[in-house]
Structure formats: structure tokens, C-alpha cells
Amino acid sequence: MDQLKGIGIQVFYTILKQHRRKLRPEMRILGDAYVKEEFRQANQKANQEQYIEFLKRWAIYIEELDQSKLIGRDLTSEEKSLLNDEQIENLAKLKEFSKQQKSE
Prior knowledge:
Layout: H1 2-22, H2 25-45, H3 48-66, H4 77-81, H5 85-103
Helix pairs in contact: 1-2, 1-3, 2-5
Family: Belongs to the complex I LYR family. SDHAF3 subfamily.
Subcellular location: Mitochondrion matrix
Protein name: Succinate dehydrogenase assembly factor 3
């Protein structure tokens, strides 16, 4: 699992780097906060199998950012079905925070 955590750190920093390159500042604030929280929770709670799947999903996200096709798209129904209750709650909080930022 230690080797996976090392890979996870690389993935984490790659995402933050891509956010700096690809996202507008207001989206970057939201995206960075969300990524940090997701990685923190995965490091604390995920078993090895879950962590591997977690990293695979983030690798797809990195690829989509590279291709600049992810910005502003909705989650697919398949992606939504993979979310656990805590992730759904975090997503709702993120949406609320985003709405507040737009109104300011």
C-alpha cells in the first residue's frame, strides 16, 4: 500500500498542476479544494482495492483535462452510480459553494 500511496501523491500533484494550467481561477479554487478532500478521505478510509480504483478514476480525469474536454461537463449516470453517500454529500456541498461564489 505504501507504493500505491506514492503513486497517489504523484497523481494528486499532477491534478493540481493541471488545474493551474486548465481551469479558470474560480474553478481552480473549487477543484483544488475538492481534490484535496477526496485524497485526504481516500488515504484515511480506502482499502487497497478501493484505492486502486480511486487512482484509476483520477487518471481518467487527468487525461480529460489534458484533452480540455472535461471543463464544465456533468457527471455521467455511470459516474454518479459509483459515488458513495459521503461523495454525494461532498458534491452537494461543492455545488452550493459554487453557487455562493457565483453570486458574490
